Amino acid sequence: MGTRQLVDVGGRRLNARRAGRSEPELLLVHGIPTNHLLWHDVVPALAQDARVLAVDVLGYGWSDAPGDWPVDIASRAGHLPRLRVPVEVVRGCRDSQVRPRYGERLVAAAPATG
């Protein structure tokens, strides 16, 4: 499912898996309580026509534990711009929580799971 990297987001690290080589860039964020493996079957197909980044939010998968950082969905969404990926797809966050932060860069947001 691509190469793994840990991305520093200001003192904590998010696990990210990258795949694909062409535009556009797609950011895939799992719902709660899952991890980036939710996208395991989807990434290969998307990576044929895009660069894909499947990320574990703070406290899930192989990302760092949140420690004393806030863990609400809006706070977790706030870490995503630090990945330096244009946001095309966000899953696992309610549209009303991420739309103000990403505006027109947000193509789709699906309801949170769980």
Tell me the layout of helices and strands.
Blueprint: E1 3-8, E2 13-19, E3 25-29, H1 43-47, E4 51-55, H2 73-79, E5 89-91, H3 95-102, E6 108-110
Parallel strand pairs: 3-4, 5-6
Antiparallel strand pairs: 1-2, 2-4
Question: Could you characterize what this model shows?
Answer:
The protein is 18% helix and 25% strand. It is of the alpha/beta class and 114 residues long. The chain has one domain (3-110): 3-Layer(aba) Sandwich (Rossmann fold), CATH 3.40.50.1820. The strands form two sheets. Strands 1-2-4-3 form a four-stranded mixed β-sheet. The protein has a two-stranded parallel ribbon with strand order 5-6.
Which strand-content bin applies to the residues? 25-35%
Order of helices and strands: EEEHEHEHE
Shape: globular
Q: What name does CATH use for the topology? A: Rossmann fold
**Annotated CATH architecture:** 3-Layer(aba) Sandwich
Number-wise, the strands total 6
Helix/sheet category:
alpha/beta
Overall average residue pLDDT: 76
Count of discrete structural domains? 1
Q: What's the end-to-end separation, in Å?
A: 24 Å
Biggest sheet strand order reads: 1-2-4-3
Percent helix among the residues?
Answer: 10-25%
CATH class division: Alpha Beta
Radius of gyration based on Cα positions? 13 Å
Q: Stretches where pLDDT falls below 50 for ≥5 residues? A: 107-114
Number of helices: 3
| Main beta-sheet strand count, sense and barrel state | 4 strands, mixed
State the fourth-level CATH superfamily: Alpha/Beta hydrolase fold, catalytic domain
